[in-house]
Amino acid sequence: MKKIINAPEDVVADTLRGLAAAHPELRVDAKNGFVARGEAIRLGKIGLVSGGGSGHEPLHAGFVGYGMLDAACPGDVFTSPVPDQILAATKAADGGHGVLHIVKNYTGDVLNFRMAADLADDEDIAVATVVVDDDVAVEDSTHTAGRRGTGATVFVEKIAGALAEEGAGLDACAAIAAEVNERSASFGIALRAGTVPTAGRPGFELAEDEIEIGVGIHGEPGRRRGAMATARELTATAMESLHDAKPLDGRLLVLVNGMGGTPLSELYIAYAEVADWCARHNVTISRNLVGNYVTSLDMAGFSITVCRLTEDLMRLWDAPVRTPALRWGR
Amino acid sequence: MKKIINAPEDVVADTLRGLAAAHPELRVDAKNGFVARGEAIRLGKIGLVSGGGSGHEPLHAGFVGYGMLDAACPGDVFTSPVPDQILAATKAADGGHGVLHIVKNYTGDVLNFRMAADLADDEDIAVATVVVDDDVAVEDSTHTAGRRGTGATVFVEKIAGALAEEGAGLDACAAIAAEVNERSASFGIALRAGTVPTAGRPGFELAEDEIEIGVGIHGEPGRRRGAMATARELTATAMESLHDAKPLDGRLLVLVNGMGGTPLSELYIAYAEVADWCARHNVTISRNLVGNYVTSLDMAGFSITVCRLTEDLMRLWDAPVRTPALRWGR
Amino acid sequence: MAESPGAFDAARAAAWITASARLIGGAADRLTELDTAIGDGDHGRNLTRGFAAAAEKADGADTPRGVLTGAGSALVSATGGASGPLFGTFLRRTAKALPDAPVVGPDDLADALAAGVAAVRELGGAADGDKTMVDALDPAVTALRGALAEGASLPAAVERAAEAARAGAEATIPLVAHKGRASYLGERSAGHEDPGAASTALLWSALAEATGADDG
Amino acid sequence: MAESPGAFDAARAAAWITASARLIGGAADRLTELDTAIGDGDHGRNLTRGFAAAAEKADGADTPRGVLTGAGSALVSATGGASGPLFGTFLRRTAKALPDAPVVGPDDLADALAAGVAAVRELGGAADGDKTMVDALDPAVTALRGALAEGASLPAAVERAAEAARAGAEATIPLVAHKGRASYLGERSAGHEDPGAASTALLWSALAEATGADDG
Ligand SMILES: Nc1ncnc2c1ncn2[C@@H]1O[C@H](COP(=O)(O)OP(=O)(O)O)[C@@H](O)[C@H]1O
Ligand SMILES: Nc1ncnc2c1ncn2[C@@H]1O[C@H](COP(=O)(O)OP(=O)(O)O)[C@@H](O)[C@H]1O
Ligand SMILES: [Mg+2]
Ligand SMILES: [Mg+2]
Ligand SMILES: [Mg+2]
Ligand SMILES: [Mg+2]
Fold first, then answer.
1. Residues in Cβ contact with C158 at an 8 Å cutoff, skipping those fewer than 6 apart
2. Selected residue of C86, C184, C194 to mutate for chain A interface (largest A Cβ count, 10 A)
């Protein structure tokens, strides 16, 4: 394992230190384990809090700022945050009218956020929760922990964030977050596993001609191992899985997301093939995002997330945003 | 070699295809080998053209847009563009008052841009050239091809681009570009070499505890091989080299740049150490940028680029920019 | 000074937590390796951090109930992941089911542990054979109660429970996971021991150590 | 149909370019490997692309001067990198120094090639021993002129030049580079053959093939 780190156990703290140094517009509260906007929350605005294990940067702290999150709580690498830090973030994000918790569907995240919501309730903060579960590589059945939350988290945070900025209430924010999640689907493919710093070796080993298909963002192997293929074939595998799970129609928002160790040029190549696939299947892409947004340490690979947009969702996607990792309109 | 590509020889064409699909606001002229802004150049505005080998994405095409480049010409992987495409880009960027060529200091780039400038002269387009040579890992002596152009290219393109947008003339744009280059310095360290698609194997092999120190962005080994060290030590090596070459004082603009295969979290850790180093040495960082901006395929590692700002340079750095890879203020 | 082997007091409760912290810390690499195979490679580190925090809080109360409540809360606050809330709930709900007395008897302890296990089932929704910590927890309380019913002493009964927990953990190897991260792998989760079941077995070994310890 | 071995006409000029394209295409992997060691791993691909384009233009003129000008321009337009302008300039300035005639004699050809080499020196600024293509080009023209002065036939003289180019390329192995990308490596560039010198040697082999070819 070779990483630009000081010590495996300091990775999260040092990343936050760097984030704080690079972004004075953020409030990085290392002691209480959260990152919030530097300015106080506008009274009456619904607060948006997200969080989860670290190792997915820029998710989530990179999405704190105008038009998106009010606070994020990063846990240890691949480990959900604890209720205390979620509660602290929730308090920081509360403008008096309630806080939306955006939770990726993993047992640890769901349980810790649920405990934090109970604690917030004790302090009379209204909390609504949306659980993001967009990864169609996992069967949504009683035989699994349910679909994982991955790329759609960015869409949920951006769109619910824009609605909150417009002054919408907690129920409306929770409803649109659920709608975005419902309309979204993701599928990931890994070429090389990432390495958890404290584990010291990759989550799985792949031969030169092997890939993991239907992979998540926590270093676990995918649903199956497959043969390395062209960008066109890899993309088709992903698009077909997405289409099988939730038929692709209308106008799409598409994210071609890098897993951390894959350079931008390869993501653009994948996007070229996604655009081609959509053209061949009479599907319209109205908005897109290409880059490293929901990563898995230094894993090589990509995921595709689609959201079937409505007029409303498109307007909110286009609304101004100003965060370290996503910025337009101001 | 495992990459998300269709065929090694199609990498550049497919990347451009993806860029075109993802960014309808750009004009991607694959036939003539350049990427330009979608809208026609404003009459009278000085045009900015850059280019170089591919494999450094988002450099250069990702910096085409308002406030930065007018056109970019990507060559084959790690191969400078040919005069014909540079000429075509120059014509596309000419608003009648001349074009600034921003050239990284590599023999191939310098020679091909020089030939293109001669051709442009034949067509009565005034061309000024700035050669960026910020990489202090290379000795600036007659015993070398001179310092390489790396991270400072982003600073030059952004700042000269902002000045051009303000309506400055060719000489002024060229002068500020040269000033930014003069005030900048870079130093890079690699943890793992990248792989040129058509070569099929990494540019160099490193053991688990080895790194390349003073490395460029074309897969060549660095000045020396060293032992793997902590982020703090790696950063100190780089900062000391920068300081030795051009004493760090005043207010700095700092770029902590990823080489393509390094995740953002590690870059933030490096930035934390850069900020610490500067604090310990009484150096002020006024602006920063952390991310993958001048990459070397899938190389793992980072570089640090500093520019000693003036009032003017800071104002121009802060000016609005709207490109695929750098965007703020609109 | 702890009570005689048949009884469970605050000191023994605290000894349980500190022994857990020691055994889990010692096995952290193995637990992480198990979690790397079918999960996300953090289980050893999660529980090491969590039980270290719990052990720090283990001295602060006069009753087993107080000790385990404090330890459970500390565990939740420090662990994260799935195992934090689940193990934390196990301890807190075990505590809640204990009589609020300085010393509790073997049957009360067994009933309380059963309540703790039931709470884990409820919170996580895992059934037997889903390849989770439940597959070690459940055989352990069953063996504990069975041994006590047969008249075994508390130390002997907990020793049997610990063996059952170990056997339960090993029996997860061929299973296909239906809960937790390992469930994402489907059939590919078979052939590996569940990390949470493995750490659960350590917890019961620690309890055997704490209840069996001679106070001489 | 080509002229007799002593003379250099458009057909032989074209044959030089097509033979260069073939030899370089065949050695592309080796050239890339050399460039991977001390450069950026694109030399084989650059020149393969460049000479393929040049070969396509090689038939379009009646004079050696016309052929080489066209080939040189095509090379510049298709190659990129350092080698594109340098080899392109070599061909174009060689062409420019040739008499504008359908057939040129050995001495005129040698003088023109010397002018081409001088132009490469001027454009790239490399001195002898800087570990560049100049280290193969220079011994080659020197050997060519020497052999002609000693009364050798053009085919024999070019054969000697090609040998000198090969020797010159091999002699770059111990050198420390002072120009081109390899110079970034400082002392570490020693121990590797310069890719541009290696491809230059192929160019001279191709010329030997083209001038020696029997037109029967
Ligand atoms: N729904 C559940 N019910 C019971 N135990 C569970 C459940 N989900 C996960 N576990 C247990 O948690 C263990 C994983 O813990 P840990 O690695 O610390 O958390 P995470 O999965 O969040 O990384 C699994 O091995 C399993 O025993
Ligand atoms: N200044 C120079 N003068 C002469 N030859 C040079 C010079 N710089 C580089 N070369 C030659 O060019 C070769 C490299 O060509 P190539 O790999 O195609 O281009 P690049 O270095 O741009 O990738 C070197 O091996 C060397 O022989
Ligand atoms: Mg985890
Ligand atoms: Mg090159
Ligand atoms: Mg885990
Ligand atoms: Mg090269």
1. C144, C204, C207, C208, C211, C212
2. C184
